[in-house]
Each structure stands twice: as structure tokens, then as C-alpha cells.
Specification:
alpha/beta, Lyase, Ornithine Decarboxylase, Chain A, domain 1, TIM Barrel, 8-stranded parallel β-barrel, 13 helices, about 30% helix, about 25% strand, globular, EC 4.1.1.20, amino-acid biosynthesis
Length: about 450
């Protein structure tokens, strides 16, 4: 039996509400929906659909807001953008220009961050399953630190570092057993999650790491989950426990220079009221202020989520019994979040006239051969003839980065908008690229 669609106890926000809460978007009475000063219809005409579009102004504004909140809280802090949220070279490069480093979780992301202009001294390598090859690459590049998530990983890093004649700067990721009260698939701070080591085990393991050849422990790290929208109570509890751990480690004579506070601050997709950067900075200061440690943050979604839209075109509208289906040329292989997390994304028509037309409930779906290829159910939308354009909002995080080529569908193009100009930052994949690298065995003739 199919899982039920999420049920909300408040009406869906209307088109005007969705626009009012997203400063990069506006409606021109002639050109229709605009991203900054560029009509989205112009982007679709130039690069086809589906296509991702990112607002440079939003990226800069949100990076600046977070930096200001940390500075005003009196915190010695650095920000390392979670590359997994959006690994586009243009996005990472723009944020590097705003003074952000990068948090990476694979050698591919490390390569991308370096290619985008992030200095190695600004890169943190996280993740529970780093290979020996990835560790070697990180040490060769002399990145800022590797976050270690187990005693077993510490032993492997020690072995790799010694074999290279290097000392590996590393932090121990602890699991504070704090419930972030977010979706079960993106919580990371409970004992049942695979991440980090239980905080009660941290003092012993940190001491062992300090004695391991080739390791240079410099601090501790934590990340309790993603899309956290229930205030900062979970953060405050986690950071209080980290502060206690810092004091315990220092009392035992161990150096603790940095505390990586993770990320996870949520955004408002529908009507959520996530905490502000100022509230997060306050929680950090309450738990870790006065300890003379360098604070590190790893935000991803909060910075880039509101910066992006996914443009799609209507293929057909289909009436089936009592249900109206709007079938798009975008699918779950472009935007996976609704299928994977039951996530809600605002959907706006691009044509100006459609904003004022009568609406009726519609299921918005893609062409992929899965019933889960459904973006929205019973969404109030105007009539949308074939080739009408719609925009999925807040699609800048975990959109393109989670895309696939399922059903042999090429990856969509990506565009960056900056004021009145826009540029292609990733070409649309062609069908030949889907087959590139494949081989038929010689016995097939």
C-alpha cells in the first residue's frame, strides 16, 4: 500500500504569500515570474527545461547574514559550506569569494571544492566511510582537518599518515544523543544513527588519538541533523554537552583548539518558522563561549536552498476519474526530495496571467515510471496547457546534487542569475553522454 501523503493542519500558502517570503522572486505583469531581474521564461527559452536556476544575490545575502550573526555574537568562527547540498562549481566559487570554506564528504567533493577555488586550508573532510585513498588525497592537499567518526577510522588514518610521513590534523565527531526533531532520514545526533562516537566514549578515544602516531587531534565535532525547524533547544543541549567535553579533555591535558558545530539550520519550504542565525549563534555562545576555541559551522541548505528554483514545462494535463494530473517534463530524478522525504515545495506558474486565473486541485507528477514520481497532491493551480512553465521553489539544496539519470533521462542544465544577467554553469547532459564509458562484451559479436 502506498504511504499516505503528508497531512498539514494549515492551508497551503497562496501564490502571493510564496512570493512575499522570497525576496529574489517577483512578478512582472508582462514578463511573468522573475528571478532577480531575469524572466524565468527567458532562461527556459535559452536552455530548455527542466533547468535549475540559482540566485547569486541570495547566496551572497545569506552567507553575509550568517557571518554577521557569528561576528555580532563575539564568536571566533569560520563557515564551511556543506558541498553535498550543492556542489556546483559556480555556487561553491561564489561562496568562496564571500570567505566561506567547504565541508566535503568524498574525494569528488574535495576535488570540486579545490577546483572552485576553495583553499585547502578552508576544507574539512567529514563522513563515516573515508577510504584510505581519500585520506591520502586529503593529506596530500594539506586540508584543514579530517573529522574522525570511530576508533577504527582513527587507526586507519594513523596508519595512512605514518606511511606518508605526515601528521593528520583531525577532530573527533561525537554523538551527543540529542533529538533534532527532524525527519528520521536526516537526523544524525541520536545513538541509533551511524554518525560519530557516543559522547561518553569520547574522552577515552580522544586520549588514545593523542597518543597515536601520525595524528594531531585539534578538536571535536558534532552534527545533529538537517532541516532543523524546532527552535534551537536541540542545538543548545548539544553545545552544552560539547562545552562540558572540552573542559573534561583539557583537564586531562589534551589540546582542544576547535569545535566544529555542524550545520542543519532549517529553511521555510511551506510555513515552517526555523530559528534565525542570531538564535543559533546565541546557542553556540551559551554552550561554548569563553572556552577560547575556534568555532566552525557547516551550513548547506540554509545558504543555498532558497537560492534555487527548478523550472519545468507541462507535457500534458490529464483528467482521470476525479483527479486532475499535471504531468511535467521534470521528474523525481531531478527533484528527489518529495519522493524520498515527502517534502513540500512551493510551485508557482511562470506566466503572469496564470497568477490571477481560477485554480483547482491538481496532482503534479513527472513522467518517470514510478508512482512515487509525484511532486504534490491536491495543489491549487490554474489551468496549465502544454508547454506552460512552472517553478519549484527553494530547490537550491539537495536538488541537482541528488539528481540521477534514472529512466535514461539526461541531467538537467544549471544556470546562475546575477542581477540582470544569467549564465549557463552546467550544460545539459546529452544522450551520448549517458552511454559514454559503457562497453559490450566481445562475445556479443
Amino acid at each position: 500500500m502506498a504511504a499516505p501523503a503528508p497531512v498539514f493542519d494549515t492551508p497551503d500558502p497562496g501564490f502571493a504569500d510564496l512570493l512575499a517570503q522570497r525576496p529574489a522572486l517577483s512578478l512582472d505583469p508582462m514578463a511573468g515570474l522573475m528571478l532577480e531581474e531575469v524572466p524565468l521564461a527567458r532562461i527556459a527559452a535559452a536552455h530548455g527545461t527542466p533547468v535549475w536556476a540559482y540566485s547569486a544575490a541570495t547566496l551572497r545575502r545569506r552567507a553575509g547574514m550568517l557571518k554577521a550573526a557569528l561576528f555580532n555574537a563575539g564568536l571566533d568562527a569560520s563557515i564551511h559550506f556543506a558541498t553535498k547540498a550543492n556542489p556546483s562549481l559556480a555556487v561553491v566559487n561564489l561562496l568562496a569569494g564571500e570567505g566561506l570554506g567547504a565541508d566535503v564528504v568524498s574525494e569528488g567533493e574535495l576535488h570540486a571544492a579545490l577546483a572552485a577555488g576553495v583553499p585547502a586550508s578552508g576544507i574539512v573532510f567529514s563522513g563515516v566511510g573515508k577510504t584510505r585513498g581519500e585520506m591520502r588525497r586529503a593529506l596530500e592537499e594539506d586540508i584543514l582537518q579530517l573529522n574522525i567518526e570511530s576508533a577504527e577510522e582513527a587507526a586507519i588514518l594513523s596508519e595512512v599518515a605514518v606511511s606518508m610521513g605526515r601528521r593528520a590534523r583531525c577532530a573527533l565527531r561525537v554523538n551527543p544523543d540529542v533529538d533534532a526533531r527532524t525527519h528520521a532520514k536526516i537526523t544524525t545526533g541520536l545513538t541509533e544513527n551511524k554518525f560519530g562516537v557516543p559522547i561518553a566514549m569520547a574522552p577515552d578515544l580522544y586520549a588514545r588519538m593523542c597518543a597515536m602516531p601520525g595524528l594531531e587531534p585539534v578538536g571535536i565535532a558534532v552534527h545533529i541533523g538537517s532541516q532543523i525547524t524546532q527552535g534551537v533547544a536541540s542545538y543548545a543541549a548539544a553545545y552544552q554537552r560539547l562545552g562540558d567535553l572540552v573542559r573534561e579533555l583539557r583537564a586531562a591535558g589534551h589540546p582542544v583548539l576547535r569545535v566544529d558545530c555542524g550545520g542543519g539550520l532549517g529553511i521555510s519550504y511551506r510555513d515552517e518558522t526555523p530559528a534565525s542565525p542570531e538564535a543559533l549563534a546565541g546557542a553556540i555562545r551559551a554552550g561554548l563561549g569563553g572556552l577560547d576555541v575556534r568555532i566552525m559551522l557547516e551550513p548547506g541548505r540554509w545558504i543555498c536552498g532558497p537560492a534555487g528554483v527548478l523550472l519545468a514545462a507541462v507535457v500534458i494535463e490529464k483528467q482521470s476519474s476525479d483527479r486532475r494530473f499535471v504531468i511535467l517534463d521534470a521528474a523525481m530524478n531531478e527533484l528527489l526530495r518529495p519522493a524520498m522525504y515527502d517534502a513540500w515545495h512551493g510551485i508557482l506558474p511562470v506566466a503572469a496571467a496564470a497568477f490571477h486565473a481560477p485554480v483547482s486541485p491538481a496532482d503534479v507528477v513527472g513522467p518517470v515510471c514510478e508512482s512515487s514520481d509525484t511532486f504534490a497532491r491536491d495543489r491549487a493551480l490554474p489551468a496549465l496547457p502544454p508547454e506552460s512553465l512552472v517553478a519549484f521553489l527553494d530547490a537550491g539544496a539537495y536538488g541537482a546534487s541528488m539528481s540521477s539519470t534514472y529512466n535514461a533521462r539526461p541531467l538537467a542544465a544549471e544556470v546562475m542569475v546575477d542581477g540582470a544577467r544569467f549564465a549557463l554553469i552546467r550544460e545539459r547532459q546529452d544522450h551520448a553522454a549517458l552511454l559514454r564509458g559503457q562497453r559490450l562484451p566481445d562475445w556479443t559479436g
